Amino acid sequence: MTTNGPGFHLKSTAGRWVLLATVLGSGLAMLDGTVVNIALPSIGEEFDAELAALQWTVNSYTLTLAGLLLLAGALGDRFGRRRVFIVGVVWFTVASVICAVSPSVEFLIGARALQGVGAALLTPGSLAIIEATFRKEDRGAAIGAWSGLGGVAIAIGPFVGGYLIDAVSWRLIFLINVPLAAIVLWAAIRHVPETKDETAADRPIDITGAVLAAVALAGITLALTDGAQKGWGSPFILVSLIGGIAALAGFFAVQARSTHPMMPLGLFRTRQFSAANAMTFVVYAALAANLFLLPIQLQQVSGYTPLQAGASLIPITIVMLLLSARSGRLAGRIGPRLQMTVGPLIAAVGMLLLTRVGPDVSYVADLLPALLVYGVGLAIVVAPLTATVMGTVDERFAGVASAINNDVSRVAGLVAVAVVPLAAGITGGDYRQPSAFDDGFERSMVITAALCATGGIVSFFTIRNPPPAPKPEAEHFTHCGLDGPPLRETAIGAS
Hints:
Layout: H1 13-47, H2 51-79, H3 81-100, H4 105-133, H5 136-167, H6 172-175, H7 177-191, H8 207-230, H9 235-257, H10 271-300, H11 306-312, H12 314-334, H13 337-353, H14 363-391, H15 398-423, H16 434-462
């Protein structure tokens, strides 16, 4: 049985402290995910790095985060969510300092991998703490506040990151985590109660599955990222690819046989769940590749400073903050199929409009319209997609279903950042040659638009709206035997 804590009110002092700790904690991971992309050209310039090194600067973080996310959730359930959350914050902060003092790009890549481990430990814990400590009546509002305030962190991340890079150095985007983490730790230690799943001790932790998943992701990503540079026939690349595929097959075999798998494969027998995750993969792959390449294009080709590049992307998040909740309510009334079909198609149009971003780009005429269309498409689809994933499984699997979908989106980004630049012909030092990168960027936007549109097509053919709830019987009334009004009115106008 889960220990539900004291049942805090959202508007109580205790509830506000819990919300502060969890929002700031998860915000650390969200903030880093947005600001690093803005810093990539500066990092590449300082270390004279090839494109593959910049890809690994992003992907080493995503790799450990995606590989350990499900395991971290299980650890929190067993050993205490606050404890694992605090360990994650400390780990993330130490790794951030190591990132900031990196003497080489290889060192930075390793430090980013360590940072991803910390993010994996704190990310599932932040939401689990909210679920376990707030009253049932306040959980929805608390999760909404967590999501909304987390969105603000994503919105201001590129702007703050750009300012710090321009004013001081890219190294400061990692050091800014230290004071934020200090606040999180103080609030968590002083004000967040410990909760755990009391039955978790009876369930073995799927260490084998976690190791196989990490090896599979590492091997496949390594081959896809470095294959063009080292040669696809290189023994190193072949061993990485074959080893990764073998580990992936082993992971699914272990999950199929395990009595307590970290990823219950039975969930995928539900067509709607499988379809929603397939759609998640292609849409988030497009999104990750897009947001990896766009900041480089703006700085290396269009001549934007890091601050200008970061600030220019804010409209996407503003649109999503304004429209996502409305989109979720609309999907609740009409079903998710229409929005999950139309949203990716609109976002794909925005990505195609980004092909106009070049050396002489006009922010108002070229970039802003593309970002607004892009943002509207994402706002239309994200809330219905999340609701569909959660609505297709039994309530007892809600946590693992959410974790699987989260992991699918991160693995999609991992693969896309490795593959899309290669498919668009961007390799080596092309990002330092504006004309070469510009040509590849245009092709990559077409590729990401095609991926995003594929998500809409998948939804059209596979997603179905839930059947309407049965209407209450309006004609049946219960009367007493005497001449008088009915004991219970069940229709307007009954007498």
